[in-house]
Amino acid sequence: MAQSWLHRANQDYTNTVVSNIYSYHNGTAPSSAYQYGEEEFIAKQMEELKDYDTKRSSLVIALFLFSLWMIINNYSVVARRNRETEQELGATKELAGRDPLTGVKSKLAFTEREKEMDAAIEEGRADHFAVVVCDLNGVKRINDTKGHKAGDEYIRSASVLICNSFKRSPVFRIGGDEFVVILKGYDYEQRTAILEALDRQVEENIRTKQVIVSTGLADYRPGQDRKLKAVFERADVLMYKRKRKLKEMGAVSRE
Asked: How many domains does the chain have?
């Protein structure tokens, strides 16, 4: 655009110079022009044309550099705003992915993980894993008799117990007193021993009237399970069996 403007401006000034020279020859130029000889007058006109061209070129370069600066500056502003937006979205997603009471992963995070794992199962690239369903005994009674603050503390204590047992696996709180753990790697390989240790601790907690967590564990069956939900449901059934057993041992029920 600037180059086009420069071309038009130069053409206009060139026409002016040609007109001045033509007027000089016709004798219609201003009287001041005739103080120069013909060659000197023409040389002066050409020099002015050259100076004009130089000045116009400098102006165009300046305009170009200014435009370039504006583009770069605007790009920097847009890029910065995009980074800030991405950071805000990331922070919001991180916040939404965390349970505010316990700090473990939220139900939303579990839903996203479930979708990812369902896709991996469907595409035949799912690794071996297991699901542990955890349900807390007696939360409702604590809320009713001691208040929700005590109930929240009970839930936090249960969360700590679960996380300390399955240290290398993601723990999700999917309901008021419900947690899910997805076991992979070391925790998957040692799942039986880890769960037995947790169960022993829970049984000791019945005696000392500490937090009680009912658990059920189920393994993923390649070629048979089409969804994570199928593994979850088997673990859920085992969790309720464990809850009944703990109740028989003296644990307070949900009611």
From this structure: 2
